[in-house]
Amino acid sequence: MKKYLLGIALMACVLPACSQVTMGSAGAKTEATGSAGGANASNANASLERCGSPFGTLAVNEDHAANWYSYLGRYGIQSTIPVLRLLAQQSNCFVVVERGAGMDSMMRERDLAQSGELRKQSNFGKGQMVAADYTVTPTLIFQDNNMGGVGGAVGGLFGSVGAAVGGAMQSKGAQSMLTLVDNRSGVQVAAAEGSGSAMDVGGVFGMLGGGAGGALSAYQKTPEGKVIVAAMTDAFNNLVRATKSYRPQDAAGPQGHGTGGKLKVY
């Protein structure tokens, strides 16, 4: 019984006040925090790369047919687009333009204007939309690893109950890839990788009984979601660093890119 209570005490140390609901809780935040309004950012991640002025306008493309996209819902993430858009605007490295679901609403307003339903002063005439200079496309790679080292340490400290707790502890990892493409030429101008990891003790909740495990089931999905956002933030930082040091590739020949290349075919 004493060892069982020690295991419960360990859980209390790892997850303090996990049943409380707090608005704006720091513990619930991911690596993408705060807000952005124009060139101003509030409460942004202190490690986020920043630029003195934007490189250009940016659209975010998400491949919904990719295998990785089908896994997002399991981890409480419906889309990577809002995260990337927040990071891009907070960094002041890009001006974000709408090319996602909000585009339907934009076009609906233009349809209303053309039908004559809007007021004359609405000013929805042609030639006002801003072109996207670049498109960024994310790819996610998921990885789950047993956290054997920590699990073994817990088992050594707290005996059989500790061994059970340690066996359920895992480290969650994710890797993200971002590619930046110039929309006018179709040339990839930059690519970057990012990664993130976190400890997951969600599997231990089953030891506490059905009631406790069910009450804390939402927390079990939290580490994966936070890891995904951490990986994307890391990849975005690396993408910005690559873009800051960008130097165009010089294709062979007087005509430049796409005119045959330098590799001869006999």
Search tags:
single chain; 266 residues; alpha/beta; five-stranded mixed β-sheet; two-stranded antiparallel ribbon; 20% strand
How would you concisely characterize the structure shown here?
The protein is of the alpha/beta class and 266 residues long. 35% of the residues lie in helices and 20% in strands. The radius of gyration is 24 Å and the shape is globular.
Helix and strand arrangement:
Blueprint: H1 2-14, E1 35-37, E2 40-42, E3 56-60, H2 81-91, E4 94-96, H3 102-115, E5 134-146, H4 148-168, E6 170-182, E7 188-200, H5 210-215, H6 217-220, H7 222-244
Parallel strand pairs: 3-4, 3-5
Antiparallel strand pairs: 1-2, 5-6, 6-7
Description:
- With 266 residues, the chain is of the alpha/beta class.
- It has a domain of 152 residues.
- Helices cover 35% and strands 20% of the residues.
- The protein has 7 helices and 7 strands, in the order H-E-E-E-H-E-H-E-H-E-E-H-H-H.
- Strands 4-3-5-6-7 form a 5-stranded mixed β-sheet. It has a two-stranded antiparallel ribbon with strand order 1-2.
- A hairpin with a 5-residue loop joins strand 6 and strand 7.
- The longest helix is centred in the C-terminal third of the chain and has 23 residues.
- The chain is globular.
- About 14% of the residues have low confidence.
